[in-house]
Design brief:
The chain is an alpha/beta fold. It has ten helices and nine strands. It has two domains: 151 residues, Rossmann fold, CATH 3.40.50.300; 121 residues, no CATH class. Helix 1 packs across helix 6.
Length: 298
């Protein structure tokens, strides 16, 4: 008996709405959610892009009045042409007075009224987009939403299983070379027993079991690591709820070869066991084979 396996089509979301309502912010959130995104795409290219090559992940396209080929009918025609893909039209809306205030605060010219007041362009654009708004599958009014509120709205509708993914990077480092750029949280483990002072361990690093066993014998290690793990597991959901897409946790020791590497590896394992997406970087070990690097266990 022959079985036919049909691939589930990837989601296609067309994002539009008046200028200043949050289209670009929405596209960035969708990108964090795993969508392939393109901002300010000419409408004439949409069908070719969607149908030309098999989509390997969800696709979000921002279509708006900045493009010279934009028209409500052209956008609606594209929706009909892509009916096999079941495209979804996401419309970001905003109150007229709020849009006017936003343009006043940024002192930008409205794209539909470059030589006139912003309110003229706002009214002109709203009239133009009226048929598109009526066709929207999802309408989000951003008038009273913060960026974080918008993230939560989009997460609930577009995230896999309704949950915003949070990518976690753990980085070991040497304090002698300074803090890693972009670190959100920094933990210091220089108080732990230093394997560098044991000649049999000096040439090894924190990924070697002998080093891990040595560091683990420190009387303060178990308490430190348990509190570090508990604190991290407490904070990650809070950062995720806030809408953060990536969190970098840096763990340092003197030379970045032994203690910080071991703690980083052990913490990564603990987080993975709780289903967090974790990647690891050992800054100093990555430099080991560099011609100008200088090895030091201190």
């Amino acid at each position: 008996m022959t079985q036919n396996f049909t691939k589930t089509p990837q989601r296609v979301v067309l994002v539009t709405g008046p200028s200043g309502a949050g289209r670009s912010s929405a596209v960035k959130v969708l990108e964090d959610l795993g969508f392939e995104t393109i901002d300010n795409l000419p409408i004439r290219w949409v069908s070719r892009l969607v149908e030309g090559q098999e989509l390997t992940r969800p696709l979000a396209l921002c279509l708006d009045t900045r493009n010279r080929d934009f028209s409500p009918q052209a956008l609606l025609d594209v929706m009909d042409q892509l009916s096999d893909h079941e495209p979804e039209l996401l419309y970001l809306d905003c109150a007229r007075t709020v849009l006017q205030r936003r343009y006043s605060e940024t002192r930008r010219r409205h794209p539909m009224a470059p030589q006139e007041t912003a309110i003229v362009g706002i009214d002109r654009e709203n009239d133009l987009l009226s048929p598109v708004r009526d066709r929207a599958d999802a309408l989000i009014d951003t008038s009273e939403l913060s960026v974080h509120d918008l993230r939560q709205r989009l997460e609930s509708r577009y995230a896999a299983q309704g949950k915003m993914p949070l990518a976690v990077t753990l980085t070991s480092f040497s304090y002698k070379r300074g803090l890693p750029q972009g670190a959100d949280l920094v933990h210091d483990c220089r108080f732990l027993k230093n394997p560098y002072w044991d000649e049999s361990l000096r040439g090894l690093n924190g990924r070697d079991s002998a080093v891990g066993e040595y560091v683990s014998t420190d009387e303060g290690f178990d308490t430190f690591f348990q509190k570090l793990t508990d604190t991290t597991l407490f904070l990650l959901p809070a950062y995720q709820k806030e809408g953060k897409a990536h969190l970098c946790i840096a763990i340092g020791c003197t030379g970045g070869q032994h203690r910080s590497v071991f703690v980083t590896e052990k913490l990564a394992q603990a987080l993975a066991e709780h289903n967090w997406q974790v990647s690891i970087r050992h800054r100093e070990l990555d430099r080991t084979h560099s011609p100008d690097s200088k090895s030091s266990g201190l």
